[in-house]
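Progress note, sequence design subtask.
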């Protein structure tokens, strides 16, 4: 029960797999590789065991309230808290730069709305010095948004979760209105950009809330670089192992005072709203 706990969502391949691998090598505690697919998740665990590493596995579909609740109940029954939480699960159809409303909604369910489910069910178990790492993107910088009203809103010091939700809802309405409205909001891959901008904004809002509560929890987001994965059809600048460097730094090595920041792939802080 006293074992420390690290959790990685979407950990069965690519960047998530490498983050799990790095945690298994350096984290003093139980490392949970979670995946929507039990078959793919167990295969990933076996691949790591073949390397002499020993992750634990649990099914977790971040888009399903029931699945998140089930995982939270399991952690609560078996551990005293969560020390590291890496929100890595994400999707992108690299072949489709302008999505339909249905496609955009599905992407946002995985990349953004899932964080609210995780916040509701897993965050209450964060230890007082826990580290939350949200995987963002250079497409998660505020400058990717073209609507001035949202550029002005999202940089507010008193931004709320409800306002972030309205931002996402406004985009989905644009997607419903067709290709031109979709494109005018954030350009090509606008649904992915909106999901990562919303994720980044939520990072800062959650950190401010923990600061107000007097908790020493750190919540940061990170651009791991343009990583060569199945999601990017093998395109990119970095291997998944290189991409895991900055997320692992936040999870394991960064000073606990590093809070509410946007970290670049080389581990330096950047201004999210430049």
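Output:
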């Amino acid at each position: 029960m006293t074992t420390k706990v690290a959790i990685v969502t979407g950990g069965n391949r690519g960047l998530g797999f490498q983050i799990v691998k790095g945690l298994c090598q350096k984290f003093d505690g139980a490392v949970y590789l979670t995946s929507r697919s039990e078959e793919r998740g167990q295969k990933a665990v076996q691949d790591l065991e073949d390397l002499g590493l020993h992750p634990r596995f649990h099914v977790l579909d971040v888009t399903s309230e029931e699945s998140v609740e089930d995982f939270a109940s399991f952690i609560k029954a078996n551990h005293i808290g969560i020390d590291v939480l890496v929100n890595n699960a994400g999707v992108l159809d690299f072949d489709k730069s302008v999505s339909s409303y249905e496609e955009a909604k599905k992407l946002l369910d995985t990349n953004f709305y899932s964080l609210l489910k995780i916040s509701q069910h897993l965050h209450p178990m964060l230890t007082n010095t826990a580290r939350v790492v949200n995987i963002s993107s250079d497409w998660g910088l505020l400058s990717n948004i073209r609507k001035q009203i949202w550029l002005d809103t999202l940089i507010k010091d008193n931004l709320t979760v409800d306002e972030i939700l309205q931002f996402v809802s406004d985009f989905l309405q644009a997607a419903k209105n067709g290709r031109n409205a979709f494109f005018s909001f954030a350009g090509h891959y606008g649904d992915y950009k909106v999901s990562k901008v919303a994720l980044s904004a939520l990072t800062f809002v959650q950190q401010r809330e923990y600061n107000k509560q007097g908790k020493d929890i750190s919540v940061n987001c990170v651009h791991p670089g343009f990583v060569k994965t199945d999601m990017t059809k093998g395109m990119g600048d970095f291997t998944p192992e290189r991409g895991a460097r900055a997320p692992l730094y936040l999870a394991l090595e960064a000073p606990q005072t590093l809070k509410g920041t946007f970290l670049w792939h080389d581990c330096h802080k950047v201004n999210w709203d430049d």
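Strands lie at 5-8, 30-35, 56-59, 82-87, 126-135, 218-222, 262-263, 269-270. Work on this subtask will continue into the next period as scheduled.
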